[in-house]
Amino acid sequence: MAGASPVLVHNSGIPCEHAPRTFSNLIPEDKPGWARTFDPKTIQSGRSGNFAYVVLEDHTLVIGKTTDGHVSLAGGKDVLAAGVARIRSGKIIELNNDSGHYRPYGPYAGQAAEDAFNEAGWDATGKYVEKWPGPACPVCTGP
């Protein structure tokens, strides 16, 4: 929240109530395949690397290899957030929105990512960075 305003504001993107809350696969001809997923506790035990993640509409966090792809991790379903988690020694260094199939953006995507990782036992608050901010809000900025 920003000041007394009831508007959710995050790192960038559309800082208003018009930002999307869910994101669909933008390349529907790419069908989901098999994906190896990781239990958060396995990664928290000291692993390092970049991991793909999605947050499903029911707020479930799914983490896998970056080579498996977000569509496969999500089973082709809509997501609240998707991107890459940079993890060093089990700790989150950065969460981002680097997903070519879903292209999530805006404050709700960032909040969904941080909330899902926090719920899974990480300290993710303030670690979300938008690699691309998405479009300007057409309602707030006008034609």
Describe the structure.
With 143 residues, the chain is of the alpha+beta class. It contains 4 helices and 5 strands. It has a 5-stranded mixed sheet. The protein starts with 39 loop residues before the first helix and ends with a helix.
In brief, what are we looking at here?
By secondary structure, this protein is of the alpha+beta class. 19% of the residues lie in helices and 22% in strands. It has helices at residues 40-44, 70-74, 107-119, 138-141; strands at residues 49-56, 61-65, 79-88, 91-96, 128-129.
Features:
five-stranded mixed beta sheet, single chain, globular, alpha+beta, 143 residues, 19% helix, disordered N terminus, 4 helices
How is the topology of this model organized?
Layout: H1 40-44, E1 49-56, E2 61-65, H2 70-74, E3 79-88, E4 91-96, H3 107-119, E5 128-129, H4 138-141
Parallel strand pairs: 4-5
Antiparallel strand pairs: 1-2, 1-3, 3-4
